[in-house]
Amino acid sequence: MSLHALNTFTIRTRKLAKTALALSLVAGLALPGIAQTVQDDAAMPDTSLNVPEGLTIFGKQDPNVRRATAIVNSEIITGTDIDERVALILAANDAPVADEERQRLRLQVLRNLIDETLQIQEAAANDITVDENQVERTYAQVAQQNFRRDTAALDKYLASIGSSPRSLKRQIRGELAWQRLLGRNVTPFINVSEEEVNEVIARLKANKGTEEYRIGEIYLSANSQNRAEVAKNAAQIVQQLQQGGSFVAYARQFSEASTAAVGGDLGWIQLGQLPPALGVVARDMQVGQLAGPIEIPGGFSLIYLIDKRQILTANPRDALLGLKQLSIAFPPGITEAEATRRASEFATATRQIKGCGAADEIAKRLGATVTNNDQVPVRDLPTPLQDTLIALSIGEATQPFGSVKDGVRVLVLCGRDDPGVDGGPSPEQLMANMEEEKVNRRAQIYLRDLRRDAVIEYN
């Protein structure tokens, strides 16, 4: 078994770090995910409606019944449109999705298609068109980078899962059109001063050595009337993620934060930038861990710890390792007791390894397979092994790990190229990131206004 196969030991929810997801398009298509909490008052609608606490609802309405299709400013969204988008989400899941969850996905996909339609319509109203050749070029990029296929193979794959090239190309067209619209109507009016950038640089230097976190978030808004229902929905999403669902796909479809377009990625932030309830939980999380639902002012959040590092300090997860793997396999039909005995013998023998030079001799004596691999990035290994290997000295071996099915193995650390000290982002990078964050917030307000002014009929 190669070192690459070790990645199968990582927990399923670590899929946030992957880019080959059905709903993740080419980098740069979606709005950038800048560190931003959900408490962005500028992008939230006015809720001062003076709704009485004690009210009577006249008439009967089942909140679980929703219309399947819609007409958005005279443009029809069909049931087929919804089915093909849902198929993309289901294809990104490792586990079957219950009927109730599938219905919730359909409702969310319909909302997303309405937003996409509004974005395309607004771009057309501003004489912004997306050339068909550009859509085809982007589709080819998506096929190669995200699906590891050429366009013909991607066409067949999409048809096989119940989706279609037309559906994915429309999503591409919508994101390109929206991006160009923002580039004309929003970006030119965004300004970040040198004073703002210098303030951020000063804070980074003052906080050198303190920890910052890269967090993914799914935010669901709630009020006193729907709190119980939203909490139930959040718990169902957690269940789907624990069963192998894609965090990125669920964040794109369900999160109500402005970072939904980039899979909920908040970027690198300090705990003080989060609502207190989230900061308390994130502080004790391990990389690759999922937590929630967590109640915060205005709703509930699910958070996923993508990575952790110290500000302006070398990140040990950026080190490159030289590793030697010793592995033994168990014959088919072996009993658990016998496998445990052999694994114990293997552990006793490998504890005698004193450097990589002695590893080959011990492997020969044990009948173990030896695999060498240099320049292995620490962060490419499963999270539990990352922490173990970071703490090892050259020549030391890990504790044995594996299973009856996959065999048992140890890793011997033969070399380490430590990363240089992180000098932090340049002023130009900071300014670009801050501008992108402001664009992202304005984009949410822009889309909110489009929804408010739209004529939408549900069929």
Automatic annotation (TrEMBL):
InterPro entries: OMP_Chaperone_SurA, PPIase_dom_sf, PPIase_PpiC, SurA_N, Trigger_fact/SurA_dom_sf. Keywords: Chaperone, Isomerase, Periplasm, Rotamase, Signal. Pfam families: Rotamase, SurA_N. Residues 210-307 form the PpiC domain. GO terms for molecular function: peptidyl-prolyl cis-trans isomerase activity. Transmembrane segments: none annotated. The keyword Membrane does not apply. Residues 1-35 form the signal peptide. It comes from the Bacteria. Gene3D superfamilies: 3.10.50.40, Porin chaperone SurA, peptide-binding domain. The keyword Signal applies. This is Parvulin-like PPIase. It comes from Blastomonas natatoria.
